[in-house]
Structures are given as structure tokens and as C-alpha cells.
Amino acid sequence: xxxxxxxxxxxxxxxxxxxxxxxxxxxxxxxxxxxxxxxxxxxxxxxxxxxxxxxxxxxxxxxxxxxxxxxxxxxxxxxxxxxxxxxxxxxxxxxxxxxxxxxxxxxxxxxxxxxxxxxxxxxxxxxxxxxxxxxxxxxxxxxxxxxxxxxxxxxxxxxxxxxxxxxxxxxxxxxxxxxxxxxxxxxxxxxxxxxxxxxxxxxxxxxxxxxxxxxxxxxxxxxxxxxxxxxxxxxxxxxxxxxxxxxxxxxxxxxxxxxxxxxxxxxxxxxxxxxxxxxxxxxxxxxxxxxxxxxxxxxxxxxxxxxxxxxxxxxxxxxxxxxxxxxxxxxxxxxxxxxxxxxxxxxxxxxxxxxxxxxxxxxxxxxxxxxxxxxxxxxxxxxxxxxxxxxxxxxxxxxxxxxxxxxx
Length: 408
Prior knowledge:
Elements: E1 13-15, H1 21-29, E2 35-37, H2 44-50, E3 56-59, H3 67-72, E4 78-81, H4 91-96, E5 100-102, H5 109-125, H6 127-135, E6 153-157, H7 161-172, E7 176-180, E8 192-193, H8 197-203, E9 206-209, E10 234-237, H9 246-254, E11 260-263, E12 286-288, H10 297-317, E13 337-345, H11 350-360, E14 365-372, E15 376-384, H12 390-396, E16 401-407
Parallel strand pairs: 1-2, 1-3, 3-4, 4-5, 6-7, 6-9, 7-8, 9-10, 10-11, 11-12
Antiparallel strand pairs: 13-15, 13-16, 14-15
């Protein structure tokens, strides 16, 4: 007889939005076979029904998990966002309900970086205009406003994982690299850090943004500071839709203040059944793509593996490294033990109460760990193996408990 809860055969996994088959392969290799994989997203009503029985949910950017949905997901242990973004999930309410949220922040880094370079070449060479003309039967064979990237300067705003990859690719093409980040970052290759964003804007022939969607990045490029950009520069935004003010871009294009603009992200993005509206449509020097920066076969495969691995580690060992809702803990497994995973409100005395329950049942503790944030505490306790099922009820009844399960 075993007291461990949630055996693998009973874990129900729901994967939506055509998550790559690599995720399914990872789950099956780990012994999880109760998997439903759909190529589409679900309506809120459909999802609410499914989540009454789902333990692990995998989504991409179309599925939004709000407070109402979370309130119905009583069995849900974790959500895997098989993408970079996590804004589609109410992480605060996930934390309050003991649901761990994981994502894949770096798997599509290379895909985005390559698209940046590709768009820079197309815009600096005027390919968009010449391609349209050729399709219309017009032969525009000239070198007007057509430039090589070699010897030019790329300015990178935000020198994180994607920005630094762009830096490496750009330098390999013979470009000079300048960057600005609010946090000091070690430059790669011959890249040079600037003291201000204005310094980058004034020198960049190609300007690209790689910053998160936060209050201090809203309209980071606007009608005022776009006047500092070089007249023959092209601007790229493959980060977040609100980082660049599209009215400022429209103004700059109308006044011939910049050579061109490329965007993969927008303030408002439709689903596949809705029309796409943007004030920059139908301009000869604007390249618009439907948020496909990370949409390559290779990136989706890597994302499937990475997020599935995090979810499996959480299921198998209680590892929360990379979680955006539960405090991060990663511990090696111990043979001959059960592992208690106890998520609770961060108030004094919970760990002591857990210890008291175990002591009252004469159960020896082999290891004990606690990590907290402002609202949530996460205790992982390894105990000697026991057949005493009463401890499950006792641990669940501890005040301020949110979720509790026992592994192995």
C-alpha cells in the first residue's frame, strides 16, 4: 500500500494550440500517457469544463487564463506556457491557488534574432517596395536608398538573451554594435555599451528593441525621441507591441525622417479569424509580420522539450525552478523517502505545524526546505516511507494550506 498521491497514470495533461509533438514525447518518456493534444485553442466555456479534471495545462499565447477560469480548476497543479510570454495567465491568482506557471523564455532566441537580421536587410535594401513593384509588372532596377549592412551600426535597446544574439549575428555581417540596457551587461565580441538610449538612437543605422512589456517601456520610442534617430535608419520592433508608438512611426515615415520600419508585434493583435488593423498598413517601406518571431519548427520543438521538462520535474520532484507563481526550489531526490510538497500562504508557523504533524505520527524527517515570497510559502519535506494515510488529512488541515501532495 502506498500513501503517495497522483500516480502518473491518473495525471491528466491537456495541451492546446498545436503545441509541438516534442512535448508529448517528453511526457511519455517520463511515464505520463494520459495526454490530450489539440491543434486549436478553446473557448472560455470549453476550457472551464476541461479544467475540472485537468492536472497539467499547456497553452501558447491565444489562451487566456483569468481569475474565473482558475477558480474552477480545482485539480490543476501547473500551467506550461509554451512560448516566451506569460501575460496571458493571471499569475497572482495562480499563486493564490497553488498553481505553478512555467514558460520557455529562451528557446526561440535564435529564431527571433535571425528574423531581425533578415528584416534589417530587406528594409535597408528597399526590397519590400521593389518586390511589390515586380508583382505589379514594374521593373525598379536602381540603387536609390539601397544599402549594405556591412560597415553600418546596429543599435540594440535591451541587451538580454535576444539582444545579445542579434549582436553576435550583426557583428558577423561586419556591423558595428552599440547597445543600451538599464542593467549593466557584459558585451559580446566588439559590442559597445552606451550610457543612454539617446546615444544609441543618434548613431544607429538599424535600431532594434528587445525589452519586456512594463510600465517604464511603454512607448519607449515616441514622437519626441524619434527625432534623435538618423534619417536613413530603419527601426525594428520584435519585442512587445506597446514599446514603440506607432503614431510616432507614422509621423516619421510621412516626414521622411526614417528609411523604414519593421514590426512583428502590435498593441492589439487579432486572432486568426479577425481582420488585422494597423495604421502602418500598405506602406512601401514598412514590413509587418503576424507575431512570428519565434515561430520556426526548430524553436517550437525546443520550446516543447523545455516546458515539458519543467512540468515533469515539478510533477516528479516538486522542482519549481523557472516558476512565475510559486517560490523556486530544486532539490535532489532521496531514496527510501516520501516527499511532501506543501504550498501555503506565507504566514508564520506553517513549517512548524508540518513538523508537529509528522512528530505526532512518529515520522522521521530526512530533509526539510522552505522558500517564500511576499504571499506564498513552499515547503518541501522528505520523510521516511510510511503507510500511514492519516498524515495526508492532517497536513491538508493545517491552517493556511493551499495545496499539498506527497510524491514517490
